[in-house]
């Protein structure tokens, strides 16, 4: 089972602001889901985002 992270946890892991995380979600660069009124990001989605960014930087 994949862990679900909240926006604050993702922001802390990426060392960015909550606003930046919400922008990544809005632009669909970072996949997320809504449970009730809470936005959650799967740990695998965060890993995929980091992998894509790393590959872009390497290219």
TrEMBL record:
InterPro entries: HTH_17, SinI_DNA-bd. It comes from the Bacteria. Signal peptide: none annotated. One of its GO terms (molecular function) is DNA binding. Residues 4-53 form the Helix-turn-helix domain. NCBIfam families: excise. This is Excisionase family DNA binding domain-containing protein.
